[in-house]
Specification:
Layout lengths: L27 H10 L12 H7 L13 H13 L1 H13 L17 H30 L3 H19 L5 H24 L4 H13 L4 H22 L6 H13 L3 H10 L4 H22 L8 H21 L2 H4 L12 H4 L17 H11 L19 H12 L4 H10 L2 H26 L3
Amino acid sequence: MPISRPIEFVPPEVVYRREPLPDERNAWFPWKEAVEAVSLPESNEDGTDLISRLFWGDPESGEPVNIETDSERAYVAELLERNRRVLELVDEGIRRGRFWSPDCEFEAVRDDNVSLLESGDVVFRLVPRVRTLLALRTKLARAQRDLDSVADRLIDFLRIGNIICTSDSSSIDFILGVGFQMGGYSRIHRLVSQENLPRHILQRLLSATMDQHVTNEDVIRCVCVDMVYDGLNRIDQVPESADFDTVFEHVVRLHYYNDLSTALFFADECGEDSDSVSTLQQQIEWRREKLRYLLEGHPCLFAKKKTAEFFGQQVLDWAKRLRASDSESNGMLPSGNDDPHGIFKIWPAQLQPGVAISLLGDSDFAREHRRMVEEVIDTEAVEGWQQWANPPTDAELEAARGELRAIDNPIGRMLVKTTMNPIIGVISTNQLREYSREAISLLRERLGQV
C-alpha cells in the first residue's frame, strides 16, 4: 500500500516533535547574523600567520601560542573591535539559551533536506569563524591580565556547546557542539595549570564545568532527530512500488553509496590528477556492477513500512539500553552499533556502505589513501579493512548473494544500519566526559590549595 508518512510506523516513544520556541528566545537568529558578518584575515597555508598560531598553536611544535608583544595586542584588539557586532550577537545567542532552525518542522522537510541543512550550516560556520574570535578574545583578556574576563570567556565555550547539544541537534551539530565544550574544558585545564588563580575564579570555573553537562537524554534526542528529520525522509523518497532498477538506483546509488558526482567533487577539492579521477570512476562502476549482481532477483529487496518499523525499533531498543546503563556515572555509553542478521558480515567488505571510494582496490591511488588513514586511526579495529585491497572472489560474491536471499528487506535494514549512527554521539560524549573529569579534578585540587 502507498505510504506517505513512515513516521506512522515508528514507536511514539522515539518520535521527536518540537515544542514551540518564540523567535526572541532562539539563538539561531543572532548566530546566523553573526556567522555572516565575521571579518577575519586570510590565513597562510603553512599556518604561520599570527591568528592561525594563536588559535591552532605553533605549526611545528603544536604548543599553544599566547599574545606576547604590544603590536600583537594592538592587532588582535583592532580585529575584535572590527567584529564587535559579531561578538555582541554571539553573546545574545548565549543569553537566549536555545537553538534550532525556525523552518525545520517535520512537515517542512523536503527531498533535499534544505531546512535541516540550513540549521546545520549555521552551526558548521559557527565553529571555524566564531570560535576563532572567541579564542582571540580570551587570549587578549589573558594578555591584559584580566583573569575574571578570561574565566567568563572560557565558560562561553561551554555554554555555546551545551546550547547546541541540548537543542534540536542532528548528529553533525551534536559533534560540533561537543567540540565547543571540549575546547572550553581543555582551555580551562590549561589556564588552571599555568596560572595562580584566586579562589573566586576557581569556584566559578568549577561551578560551570559541573553545570554544563551533556546527558544521555541529549544523545538519545540527537538520534531521534536524525531519524525523524533525515532517516525517515530518505526512506519516504523511495517509491513503494518500484522495479529493481528504480530501487537500485534510488537507494543504493543516491542514499548510502558515494555516487560519481560526489566522488569527483572531493577529488577536485583535493586537487587529484586526471589519472586519480579515472581510477575513481572505474572503482564506482566496478562496485555498481558487483552490487547489481549481489542484489538483483531478491524476492523482497526493500519494503518501506518494514524499514520504518525496524528503524524505530532499533532506536527504541538502543535508547532503553542507554537509560538502563550506569553511563551517567562511569562515562561509557552503549554504542548501538548493532548488526541485525549480520548483514555487514554477509556484505563483501568492498561493497559495504560508508566505505569511501578512494580507499578501495589495489591502485597506487587507493594504497596511498589507505596509508594516510592508517596514520591516524587504528585500522586493525576496523572490520574488513584488510579485505578492501582485495575484491571479493566470484565464490565469495555468490555465497553472499545466497545468504542475502534469506534476509527480508536487506536494503531497508542496511539503510537503517547506515543512517542510525548513535556511536558518533556516544564516542564524542565519552570523550567530552573525559575532558570534563580532568578539568573538574584539577579545579578541586587547586581549590584545596588556596
